[in-house]
Request: fold
Amino acid sequence: MNTYNLYILILIFFFANRVTAQDTNYVKKYNNLVNLKTFIYTNSLDFWDKGSGLNYIPGLHTGIGIGAYCKYLPFDFSIRQEVSPLSNADHYHKRRTTDMLLKGYTKYFVGDISIQKYNGFYTEEADSYKDVYRSRYSPQEDGREYEPDLSVFQLEAVGEYIFNHEKFSYKAGFTAYEEQKISAGSFMAGASFHLLKIDSDSSLVRVDNSSHLKASNFGINQGYAYNYVFGKRSCLFISAIIGMNLSNPLSKSISYKDFTISPAARFKFAYWLNFDHWSLGLTGFYKIIHQTFSKDRTIYLHSRKVEILLIRRLCYKTNKK
Reply:
């Protein structure tokens, strides 16, 4: 995405956020300009190779962060600092990771852009492949073998249109930047683009001699999101998106025969305890993408994010009569 297209996307989010008003019986807008947040997070990115039956797993990466949001901007910003991996040093070793998420939500649209790069994985055989794996590769006694030179990079952009935007607030459900007063849900539909690269200094996945795998896919998706309001201050958010993508392994010679159908699924959840000036919440995200590189090479890529957040609302407007 070049700079010009990014500016256009920001303008679309900016003006779409101001076209019509939501039903105030269902959605409440907080009368403040700025939100500050602090959070604890865990991230993970792993994949399963269908041909060999091997799981490639990094450690769970945990950290702390701070962020800010202004109601006149379509995106919020945060800074994260990893503290330590939730892992045993004997198996996970030290890893370098990049895990970024740019999200912009309006009344009409949901937009997520994620960039992930993980280095260093260990292999773990699936139960149904244990005998084959041990006889071929002779791993350590616990079935794990460290792959320090293996890296995975993925870039993804997902956009959804919210049909019931008058009564349902995605901001209230996943970010607590608004308040859902009465339970409501909405169907959503949109499109996505995904770029995946897997690199290694040696052969990958120990099935063939390839050391670099690249693929891209794009397609349409649809799903449903719901805010369940209970008690005086609690809100539970659930979202599920299912997509069908046209996938192509990136190589020097590209043929229409190389294109395959790759399904994908994305799930989000959140629980919020909302007060006038504060919100305490738990949010989670899980994604699985099916990717075919060749007849004998299919992987299932999994991404997970969990955050515990504390939000403080600042800079309240004064209503003049």
The first helix runs from residue 3 to 16. The longest strand covers residues 297-316. The helical segments are 3-16, 89-92, 130-137, 170-174.
